[in-house]
Request: fold
Amino acid sequence: MAGLRAGLVGAGSMGRHHARVLRELPGVELVAIVDPAGDTFGTAQGLPVHHDVSALVAQGVDMAVVAAPTGLHESIGLELAAAGVHTMVEKPVAATVPGAQRLHEAFTSAGLVGAVGHIERFNPALQALRARVLAGELGDVYQVTTRRQGPFPQRIADVGVVKDLATHDIDLTAWLVGSPFVSVAAQVARKSGRLHEDMVAATGLLADGTVVNHLVNWLSPMKERLTVVTGERGALVADTIAADLTYYANGTFTTEWESVVSFRGVTEGDVTRFALAKREPLRVQHEAFRDAVLGTGDHIVAMAEGMDTLVVAEAFLESARTGKTIELGRRPAIPQQRGEPAVDRVEAALR
Reply:
C-alpha cells in the first residue's frame, strides 16, 4: 500500500485519539501536528508541533485531519484545500451552512477528498442496522427515534448541543433510512448557564414519510446512545456505546389473554441480539478516508452530506427560536451505497 504523509490539526481530547489511530493505520505516516496551545495531552510523542497550518503544509502532507474547535473548521479547511491536501474535518463540518458550502466547493473544485467525521456511521451496530434495513428485514420503515444524552463535555465551548451532539442523530437518521429531512420542529433549553443550548427535543419528517424523534442533552448523569428503527415487521435497537444490535420481531401467536384480546396492533414476538464484529469506529472511519484518498474506496461522509446535516441542525434552532415547524423542501434521496461489506453480508444471508 502506498505511503501517505498525514498531519493532524488539533491535539486536544479528540485529537489525541485521531493521532493514536493514524499511527496504527497501515499505509499512513503521521508526520506532524498543529496546535497553537501546544501538546497538552502528550499527543505528539516526538513529532513536530506547529503553531499554524502553513508549517504543516510545508512538510509535504498528503492528507490531514482537523480536530480543532468548530469555529475554526472553515478557515483551516480552506487553507488545506488551497494547498492541495485531502482533509477530514470533525463534525460539524463548519459553524454555519454558508461556511460548509464554501468548504464543499473548495474541495470539489480542487478535485480533493473532503470528508466529515460523522463517526456514528462507522459504529458496527449502526452499520449492521442499516444493512438489515436496506435488505428489507423491517419491511416499510415507520419511525426512527434516538436518545443521546450525558454529562457536559468541557471541551465544547463554541457551539451548543444541536450543532455538536445532535448532528450525529441528524446524519445517522437520514443515512439509515436513505431519505432526507423535509420538516422539523424543536424545543431547546439552556440550563447550565452557558451561552449555547444544552438540551433539545426535536421531531421531524423524512421525504419517504418516516417520522423521527430526537432527545439530546448535556444534562444527564448517565450516558445514553440509543437508536430505534421501527417498521412493519418489528424494531431494531442499536446501543452504540456497547455496539449491540437487538431485533424485536412482531409476534405471530394469537393472543388469548382476555384483557388484551381486543388489541388490534402488533404483539411481542421473538427478541434476538446479533453477534457483531466490534471494530473501533474511529479506526474504520480512518480506513475509509485513507481508501478514498488512494482512490480505492468511497465510503466517507462527504462534505455535501455534512452540509445537509448542518442545514437540518440550523432548522432545529430556527424552530426553537420561532416556535414554528420549519419546512426544508424536497431534496434528493440519500444514495444507498451497495458494495458496503455489512450490506452485502446481510443481504446474502436473507436471500
The chain has nine helices and 15 strands. The CA atoms of residues 255 and 342 lie 36 Å apart. The mean pLDDT is 90. The longest strand covers residues 141-149.
